[in-house]
Records
---
Amino acid sequence: MVVVDNITKRFNGTLAVDRLCMEIPEGEIYGFVGANGAGKTTTMRIIAGLLAPTSGRVFIKGIDIAKEPLKVKEFIGYMPDFFGVYDDLKVSEYMAFYAGLQGIYGEKCRKLTDSLLELVRLTDKKEAYVDTLSRGMKQRLCLARSLIHDPEFLILDEPASGLDPRARVEMKEILKELRSMGKTVLISSHILPELSELCTSIGIIDSGRLVASGSVREIAEKLSQTGLVKIRVADSEEEAVRILMEMPEVGEISSVAGVLEIRVSGREETYVKILKTLVGNDVPVVSFHPEESSLEAVFMKLTERSNENEN
Amino acid sequence: MRINPVLQKELKTKLRGWRATVLISCYVIFLGAILLIYFAGSGMLNPYNVSGFNPRLAVNAYNILTVFQFALLFIAVPAITATSISGERERQTLDLMLVTKTHPGKIIIGKVIVSIAHTMLLLIASMPVLGVVFFFGGVGIADIARLLLFYVFTAFFVASSGVLFSTLFRRNITAIISTYIFLGLIAFGPFFGYLIHLYIKEQAAIVSSIAYTPNYGEILAILFPSPVFGFTSFFFSGSIDYYSFDLWGTVAGYIDGYLAQQTGILRLMKPWIANSIFSIIASVLLIIISTAVLNPIKRKR
């Protein structure tokens, strides 16, 4: 559905997106994760055809967006992170305006408006002025607007940002419905757990670079290859460090408040080997705790690693 | 036929409620008041007036009203159009429009037509006030129709200029100021250019001892971009005696004098016609440039 081919974007010499490549197959819910300023919005605006990349190309359904932007826009629904509304329009007029911009008029427009307002649970607000809606309602209205031409591909830039917990849950429920409708979705967030249960795959962006991309499980597994283990020993910390340093599987070692934190390449078998070696050398191990690779940890680790490479 | 959605939305929101009605009413009342004050000041409303009725007063009143409307067009239209795109940008609604399959050119045209429609609404609403001069004669319906046509072309140019600066600048205030400066240069710049031209020619005439006489071809070639030049066609010289001290009357009379000397095609190329042709061509170019600037794929940021 979407192919991003090596895009780079510079703003007055500042690199916002750096040789980014990604593919989103049809029906995929692709979570785009990154810290604020990582380049998520710029990338999404380029994919939506709202910004020209400095170099590289974007294809939607095999069509180059730079060559046929209007054709591509038929397939795209876009919801920005920040957006305004026309406060002197009613909800139904707001929908009719954007329907008109998509070439939808009359009865078809009315039917689509009704069904979309039902989807986003705003039917009872149809005749209300847009400026009287709450923030959560406006977000849902903006989502309905992005769906007015029944696009196959949705770009949702932080759709739940600024919402209270209840509105977040409501938004999540709507997104699940979109998933069941078979839409391909690119959704961004800087909060990982928000996406973990919704997405089929994720891409992690840091300083304009895609540092990881794949299914949630693939990325977690990839990261668990270099896990973090916390070990507490009684009185023999120096001896433990010496033994660990001799082991090729052990990478970086640090001591934080009497607890050794070691980076380990390998999985459970390696943890067993390390523990056996320590105990076999009479090191009094009080606790041995491999850190779970939560999505949050994955994100932190990946972005940390990319920063290290940069330095 | 489908109405441009941008135009449809703007007309709906701007004309809804009491604001538009009040605005139009105030405008017409204001014009009526100008007319009334003028007539009162001329003694026409005085029941003890023994000097008789002077029909030229109505023509003078017409001149005043047309100048007022022309000035309003230059003041009001940029204020509407210079915020048309930058306002959408400030309100964060521009991206939502550009992500649709509507061509950016259609959005620009919608914005231009909206401002022309607003201007026309004000001008047509003021027709009954202008029509007062029909009671006295001297100005015909064809004159007013020509004037309206000229206003439409001028509004087209002014609106297109406003929209261009609105696409170029992100902030409303920058766009508005730039539009006024640009329009000021277009309106009055050619007159300064013409004065410089006159000075150079006269200096050359002194050196060569061959008398220099300006001709309409030169005037046309330098002044045609200026809507003020075009507007001189609508000055009724029937009142020149009253306005002989007036700068506007002097300029209009000067140009009219040279036009009257023409016999060929230049005689047909009246100031308003020449300027209207310029306005149409320039407006189309401005719209094309605005579209290119607004087109996100071609825009650099």
---
Amino acid sequence: MRPAAYRNGEVRLDGEVYLDYQSAKPVDPRVVEAMMPYFTERFGNPAALHTVGDRATQALEESRAAVAGFIRAQPEEIVFTSGATESNNLALIGHAHRNKRVGDHVVISEVEHISLHNVGKYLEKEDFRVTKVPPDQYGRINPQKLRSRITDETILVSVGWASNEIGTVQPIQEIAEMLNGTGVALHVDAVAAEGLLPIDVAEVPVNLLTLSSNDVYGPQGLGALYIRKGTRLAAVTMGGGQERGLRSGTENLPAIVGMAKAAEIAAEEQAAEAARLAALRDRLVSEVLSTIPDCHLNGHPEERLPNNAHFRFAGIEGESLLLSMKDEGVWVSTGSACSSKTLEPSHTLISCGLLHEEAHGSLEFTFGRFSKEDDIDRVMEVLPAAVARLRHMSPLYKEA
Amino acid sequence: MKSTQYSEKTLDHFRNPRNVGTIEGEDVAVGRVGNPVCGDLMEMYVRIKDERIEDIKFQTFGCGSAVATSSMITELVIGKTLDEALEVTRGDVADALDGLPPVKMHCSNLAADALHDAIKNWRSGTQLEPLGEEEIASAGVGCGARNVTVVEGVDEYEGKGLYKKVEDVSELADKRVLVLDKGIPSAKLALSLTEVTPRVIFLTELDALGLPDEVSTEVKRSDVKMLFQSRLLAVRGEGEVEKVLILDLDDDDEYELFVDAVVLLER
């Protein structure tokens, strides 16, 4: 593997094709440039009372305003965290603890990221009751079905803006309006959607919203939680009382400056970028479905992220296909059990109604800022042959 | 070690698997282990002459190490006597591949198991039919007639996603529909449902379609997803059908499947 190269402001891997942007994104060179001074000459702890500290406070608050502007929130509604997982922990556990006397019931959609379901399991150990809402076959949550799960004891509902895995976009506006004013708070993990779809909390009345820095091409290890004014949380991390007491610990200033810059770029480029990525995705989807027999698109045919194409191929196993693609220098992702630590298939695919063997045969392509047409040319050079080779040796696939 | 961090030797056997294919003949023993539900299924075809393995081929559905271990074991046992082949263990296969990630040791077990199964079948005179070579059972009689089991939740969910008759298929538009094998009418209903929804699953306790040729061919060509050797145990959901519990009769394993509707035609 050759190293990634910054060239003409782009991050491309020589001779290799990276189509796994959902798992990690390169940091945009413009973001790296904005961060650099904050490691050295502009270092500082915002808690310090001298000029170096004041300068750090200024950078911190300007960054907070930039991230708030990205989702049309107020700066004081943004808390910086170490990433989406911590934001989800603070949102769910913090809200549950704070509202324990109001009720003990939390509703979570089945198609959430595994890290969110594990927070739900923790709440169950703490004697909260957690109910899951299954999606339809395209991975969409029906707001009416969601409503039927809500009881007098329900304090919080958590539904992602979109699935990072199958790309399905949820009817968040409808869900938010349905819950608004009912006393049931709505948490939305927006990580998969940020930078790809407009996120506007002035239009969509959510209470809590999780953001990640890397998902808008900022550095890893940083995230944010939007907390609507009036929504109250208990702290989960104790310490020096930073971030209004909700997230103690000295702020990671270079990363915060990086996330702010990344959010500014994303806000500016989102519309054009989404259209460009959707065109790439549509080309891949149409070529794969027309070239390879017995193959299906997972997720919603229209209501899906512009950068996501998720397929399943009858008769083959996803890890084998991933390895075959890797040998050809094409890096993708799979929902197959054999690529996971637990050997369990993706719960998202299972909740869409797939059989285990169908979930095992899935492959996910996610495009990003530095993806190009020739990436698809390369996929179409290698994917049909890889599928045919594995099917040839599969007892589950009888060639026509 | 990451699940996909394989030794060079394992990767070589994955990329260039030896002895892929099937063999036929009176002198061929066939072994099969695994379950596609778990993500792996292996078949070994062994040509035996004078208690010795003269030729061996395999077919595998599985991850990288499943392919590599199948390939490796064929190399390890070709030319060996059946007794010698029975002594080849999963550890031998893993060692020959310069080790496997711990989480993948299960896969190398299967390659040895499939071989041992073939030898066992040979010695007991058991004939294993290749998958997909379905015997057409008596025309028009589905499994419903063969085995009547009580499905938990049938009365509770009737009218809430459980249908005993379907007058207008558009009622089920865009839903995930599970149709139970109740003979020709149920198969024809499954076919007509594919016009209104992309997800139609036909569940039968048989290991092949027990239907007349023309219906069976039509079903095979359609988008109906077949679930053979399966029994519906229970219908579940909060207030309406959301999941079913299915028993895989082949390996006695239960699992849940998310659906929106279950059709259990009354005879």
---
Amino acid sequence: MRDMAGLDEGAPLFVQIAERLADEIADGGLVEGEQVPSTNELAAYYRINPATAAKGIAMLTEDGLLEKRRGIGMFVAAGARTRLLAERRKRFAERYVEPLVAEASRLGIDANELVSLIRDASYGQGGTTI
Amino acid sequence: MTPAISAAGLTRRYRDQLALDQVTLDLQPGSITGLLGRNGAGKTTLMRIVAGHEFASAGTVTVLGASPAENETVLRQMIFIREDQSYPDFKVRYAVQAASLFYPNWSHELAGALIEEFNLPLNRRIRKLSRGMRSALGIVIGLAARAEVTLFDEPYAGLDPVARELFYDRLLADYAEHPRTVLLSTHLIDEAAGLFERVVVIDRGRIVLNMAADDLRGAATSISGPAIAVAEFTGGRSVWDRRRIASQESAVVAGALDETDRARAAALHLRLEPLTLQQVVVRAAGASMASPAEKNAERTSA
Amino acid sequence: MSTWIKVARYQLTDRYVFLISPWLILTLDFLINVGIVANYPGRQGQVYVGALSAIYIVLLTTGALAIARQLPFALALGVSRRSFYAGTALLALAVAAVYGLVLTLLQLIERGTGGWGLKLHFFRVPYLLAGPWYLSWLTSFVGLALALAWGMWFGIVHRRWGLVGLLSFIAVQALALTAVLLIIAGADDWHGVARFFTTLTIEGLTGLLAALTVALLGGGYATVRRLTV
């Protein structure tokens, strides 16, 4: 397959593009009020059809994460990051915690052991103390 | 919106075969559609009829709302570059010059840039060009014409991978600046996959698939791992294909997988691999994915 | 029709076929004839040659190539079959008119120089191109147009019915000619034929050939319509 900057066949391309832009917003790479790359720029970067890139942008606009400024382009909407993080927090439990607990239980790791494992991991990452 | 290309019950019969059988489709303006299928499936015949080069036996075809055959108004806005394009016996520069005569949107700038990028020898006679160079010439003309309806029939014969990449990139870039309706037939599906908004698959003269490319992505996933786990995971789902060796099994499951599914698969130690567009299309066109050797392995271990 | 003009320009993209080859061949032909006549020892009187036919033969080929080679690419570039044919026919007529005039001028020069100082009748063909200059021009025009139109038919047949069709087309013409000759020989009426030709004025002949040319061009226009590439 062509080098599409890591896009894969797992999900519609426009969804993947939307997710990557969302990641950037969540990570702070794109701040509120900042202009996002144009449809054509995205298409050229990912080597895909501009209509696909446009769909990705449209998806984020619908979710209220991007806004259009007529004649200029697309910009990160106010409060986008906050909204994104809240949304991802909600999914965090589904995506990561539940499978973690299920696997732990399969391996016979009880809740306490699990919590201490989590602590070790967060020290290792130099992250927040729990 | 009037479709850019529309066919209804389009049929083309030759003495001993049915090249097109009741083909019906609508392609919207301003889109890139991939026309896929095996050799001899009917891709070229379909495009020839759309371009007015060949006549239908039955059914209708319209381009920009009107029948294309001998219709100057429509033909003016369409260009058809085919793999076996026959050129007059003159130099490359004259072919480019001739094309610039007939297309109102012709871009000398783009033609010049492409000629340079493809290293086309302007003063060489076309019949002395290598296959790849002939294809490059077709591509230069096809893109620089900026025709409202642009048809490419396997335009990359003989082009090396670098030149093909160039073609895809230039097509996308010019399409972004000057949108038009593009129908591109190809066997190299995975290479061109990123270009298509829509995919039409034709097999033995019939349309077997006509979907948005994005709907095809993630339309099927290959699940592999311990046979028992695979059986558990695929229980109750539509399974397209199953292969087995010793205690390992690989199955292709239709339908998209969501987060929960992925989590469950991970928990079961199963590997998930989404099928590429090419694999989905090959399946749709009826060809078996397994190689003869794999088929043998399946038979002996079952 | 602007498309017809564009087709004519397209046909002239490679100048060789329509513009250069007829004159190149004719010049060579002329020089060869001049060379032979100039070096022919002890000849007397006027020398008549039928070498002017060379240009007609070249135009036959030109007509065939104008269709056979140029049509498929023209169709790819969005030209309708009818426009392509009409534009090409228009060019053929224009070329025939201009070349006819040139031949007539050369005729006048030939007369003025006493046959190029060699009593050579190259451009002055008895009976056919022997009359007043305007008649000469008309006959040349029709003759050249006929050569092109007939040549174009070979191109059309080839494109529509392939190599087999082309060979059949040639065979049929050869057979027809043979048949006509056999009929005349059979009826032993060579005198009748000769009489016909002597009573047929050059104006009449020109008219006949003109009618034939129109028929060929018209027939060609109708035949290209179902041609496929």
---
Amino acid sequence: MYRLIRLIIKYHFFLLFVFLEIVSILLAINFNKHHNTVYLSSANSVVGSFNSKFNGISTYLNLKIKNEQLLNQNTDLLNKTISNYISNIKVFDNKHDSIYSQQYRYISGRIIQNYVYNKHNYLTIDKGIKNGVTPESGVACPSGIVGIVSKSSDNFSNVISLLNIDLSISAKIKKNNYFGSLNWNGEDIKFAKLKEIPFHVNLEIGDTIITSGYSLIFPENILIGTISSFDKVKGGDFYDITVELSTNFNSINNIYVINNLKKTEILNLTTNNDK
Amino acid sequence: MINKIGSNIIRFIFLAVFQIAILNNIDLGGFVLPFLYILFIILLPFETPKWLLLVSAFLIGITIDVFSNTIGLHAFSSVFIAFIRPSILHSFAPHDGYSTGSTPLINSYGLNWFLRYSALITIIHSLIFFYIEAFSFEFFFSTLWKAILSSAFTLILIILSRLLTVKRQ
């Protein structure tokens, strides 16, 4: 026993080093695997409020551009409201509409922390469970998609950014509806790769890429970006397509969280299929 | 002695806030991320007990981690440079050794000495951080490039911040 203690005292520097490194690695692994641990992350309320204070300042500096973007979007939305169209057949009653029911609900919010430097990037937004944000909701901004909510606390949520090499999103080419999966390759924050588009599809540079609506997360027709280059891979069956993202991840501020209200119903249906 | 502890605690808080509030938000093309906070580890006095070196490196690392969504990564790389710091200092030691009670500053052993010492620590820190973060060698060269650029920026910031404070001392 005495020898053991003497040994520990003699090598305390190295042992403490190993101990602290193991603690760090365990923290890193736990944080990446179990997205339910909220206590040591930016979704934590203390850290969250600190970050939102600093973000308040930078939001102010971008006010002019953001206002312009919001204005554009508002006019876009106003153009789409039903009151702008005169219905030819006055049959539908909006209040008790049994023909259309709302599938996606939008919650507006603000990014309070954004990271683009790593291979696995995350962002934090200022809306949480209290505002109706649940994990696996989609997140988009006026210019395109942003990511998917990974965990929520009462007031804040953590979002897996599209700039995370582990995230892939179901996307399609607008003009001919061929779909594939889109993910970031960890290099340039302006570009992502679209995979699984077969060789016989006609492509052109500048074709629009939108969400496919085949996942339960994003509705159809949300802009992702445009094709900036494509290439036939020798020996493969699929194109290697580079997509220029419409979202500028360096400057996003205002976002929408998209909740799929019918998700549980669809999930119940598909899990029954597996049995 | 108490004076030294106080000034190091103030430096800890200042560098952590500076890193979280300003450097983490600087936009340099999404490629370069300066880690000025390791200046805290670089500037700890020569006689700091080795265990305290590791513990304080862990503390500043985990503080930065919590605020930038990288739990464990900064802590890991900070603890590592704190572990190798004594051997680096030993190998760069002048002929008559370090005088007691001094701190590794520019004006104690010269700019050249300080540059070599802090450059080595910065590069090792960036390499470890970015490779642990990527967690594979799949992006070997882009990660390497990122680490080199980031450590260059960190080093520039370190030297600038030292030159700004040197006159006061």
